[in-house]
Design goal:
Main location (chain A): membrane
CATH superfamily of the largest domain in chain A: F0F1 ATP synthase delta/epsilon subunit, N-terminal
Protein name (chain A): ATP synthase epsilon chain
Pfam family, one (chain A): ATP-synt_DE_N
Number of helices of chain A: 2
Structural class of chain A: alpha+beta
CATH topology of the largest domain in chain A: ATP Synthase, domain 1
Distance between the termini of chain A: 24 Å
Number of helices of chain B: 8
CATH architecture of chain B: 3-Layer(aba) Sandwich
Strand order of the largest sheet of chain B: 3-2-1-4-5
Number of strands of chain B: 6
Number of domains of chain B: 1
CATH class of chain B: Alpha Beta
Helix content of chain A: 25-40%
Order of helices and strands of chain B: HHEHEHEHEEHHEH
Order of helices and strands of chain A: EEEEEEEEEEHH
CATH class of the largest domain in chain A: Mainly Beta
Structural class of chain B: alpha/beta
Helix content of chain B: 55-70%
Distance between the termini of chain B: 29 Å
Oligomer: heterodimer
Largest interface: A-B, 28 and 38 residues
Largest sheet of chain B: 5 strands, mixed
Subunit structure (chain A): F-type ATPases have 2 components, CF(1) - the catalytic core - and CF(0) - the membrane proton channel. CF(1) has five subunits: alpha(3), beta(3), gamma(1), delta(1), epsilon(1). CF(0) has three main subunits: a, b and c.
Number of domains of chain A: 2
Subcellular location (chain A): Cell membrane; Endomembrane system
CATH superfamily of chain B: ATP synthase, F1 complex, gamma subunit
Chain lengths: 141, 310
């Protein structure tokens, strides 16, 4: 039986990426992977870079490489505010690997506890998550 | 005589070629301007939603926690100021680049007079190369994207500034860019980026979101507030929202600067095309005169020859 659907919008600074009814949203917050179904309680959470899945059916889903952002559940609607959301085929693995190497280098150069260090760690996490999506791996899920 | 006629003809041809190029550049700039305007529009819903969320989280967070955020702290002693100049990668856009550089150098001179140190950050090849040429080597140089800045570019710039600020390398960050008013008007604007002006986060919210549903949402928040689950905590969310606010401010400045650049180039190229048109008219007149003089000369020679025979 089909599950109840609810409206979801994915907004990025470069415009709206997705706005439609779905059965489930699967993403990752600070505390771990979450699946949001209809009638979820109001929530405001921080999102980690991961593979975002928007389920329109039992096994039909749209995938995105999702950057950091926020999820807001209110009045039966889900709003995902993310810095970036890319379709898997628009990702360039070679380019991402290059960015990852750079972030890893910055991380080992930075002093623990500085903002520089925090930033390199965030960059590293983001590029790792994106590479995983591009290579169709299910890491983080 | 005929030599000068050929000369003028050559000049007309070359001016016509220039006019063709300037007209093409004008049209390209017009198309890019439209796209840049759309991208400014595309940012609005996101920026508005982030503001609404910031307000919701701020309402739920304890005010002591909010005030301890390093990005909101005004330093008692501001000794080192960073100036971020937003220029373009390319020229041929009227005063677009030079007015930013002029404003930046003047701001730096004023700050130095007050005994403050100045560090430059520059976006766009024009700004970077001028500063380097003037031995004011920018601390951060960002080039290659001013035609179409992505959010990732803004994030890179903003994070460099934030880390420099948090790690105490600079005590204040100011932003100088061309704000987009219309295709014909661009205004040089100077804003303080860091520390974040608390007032601008909360106050600007009301101004921009008059008709959106998100606003109605936010107004209902206080009532439903107790039921909202925060992950991790309102304070934890604010710690991320505030730097994001800086990123959005930089992104907006980059987008507005890009729209301004295309607008300025469109205007500059339209003027150039018009000037070329006038020049062609003048040169055509000159050529016609030269041809007429030549014809008159020939007739006189013929008449004189006929008279000589009779």
């Amino acid at each position: 039986m089909a599950r109840t659907t609810f409206p979801v919008e994915v907004l990025t600074p470069e415009g709206s990426v997705f706005a439609s009814e779905v059965e489930m949203v699967s993403t990752r917050t600070e505390t771990g992977s979450v699946g949001i179904l209809a009638n979820h309680q109001p929530l405001l959470g921080l999102l980690q870079p991961t593979e975002l899945r928007l389920y329109t059916g039992e096994s039909d889903y749209t995938r995105y490489a999702q950057g950091e952002g926020y999820v807001q559940v209110a009045e039966g609607r889900v709003l995902l505010l993310v810095e970036e959301a890319h379709t898997p085929d628009s990702l360039d693995v070679a380019e991402l690997r290059e960015k990852l190497t750079k972030a890893e280098k910055a991380l080992s150069d930075a002093e623990l506890g500085t903002a520089e260090f925090e930033r390199a760690a965030r960059d590293k996490r983001r590029w790792e998550a994106f590479i995983a999506v591009a290579e169709d791996s299910t890491v983080g899920h | 005589m005929s030599a000068s006629q050929a000369d003028v003809k050559d000049r007309i041809a070359s001016v016509k070629n220039i006019a063709k190029i300037t007209r093409a550049m004008e049209m390209v700039a017009a198309a890019r301007l439209r796209r840049a305007e759309q991208r400014i529009e595309a940012l609005r819903p996101y920026a508005r939603a982030v503001r609404v969320m910031t307000r919701a989280a701020a309402n739920a967070a304890s005010s002591a926690e909010i005030n301890s955020n390093p990005l909101l702290q005004r330093r008692e002693k501001e000794e080192r100021v960073a100036l971020l100049l937003v220029t373009g990668d390319r020229g041929l856009a009227g005063a677009f680049n030079s007015q930013i550089i002029r404003a930046g150098l003047k701001a730096a001179a004023d700050l130095r007079e007050q005994g403050e140190e100045v560090a430059f950050f520059a976006v766009g090849r024009r700004g970077v190369s001028t500063l380097t040429f003037r031995k004011q080597e920018p601390l951060g140089a960002y080039t290659g994207f001013t035609d179409r800045p992505a959010y990732a570019n803004a994030r890179e710039v903003a994070e460099d500034l934030i880390t420099a600020y948090v790690d105490g390398k600079v005590d204040r960050v100011e932003l100088i860019y061309n704000s987009y008013v219309s295709a014909l008007t661009q205004e040089v604007r100077r804003e303080t980026l860091l520390p974040v002006q608390e007032a601008t986060i909360w106050a600007a919210a009301g101004a921009e979101e008059d008709t959106s549903f998100s606003d109605a949402d936010a107004d209902e928040k206080p009532a439903a507030h107790a039921l909202v689950e925060y992950e991790p905590s309102p304070e934890g969310i604010l710690d991320r929202l505030i730097p994001d606010y800086v990123e959005i401010s930089v992104f907006r400045a980059l987008l507005e600067s890009t729209a301004s650049e295309h607008g300025a180039r469109m205007t500059a190229m339209r003027n150039a095309s018009e000037n070329a048109g006038e020049l062609i008219d003048d040169l055509t007149l000159e050529m016609n005169r030269a041809r007429q003089a030549e014809i008159t000369q020939e007739i006189m020679e013929v008449v004189a020859g006929a008279e000589g025979l009779s």
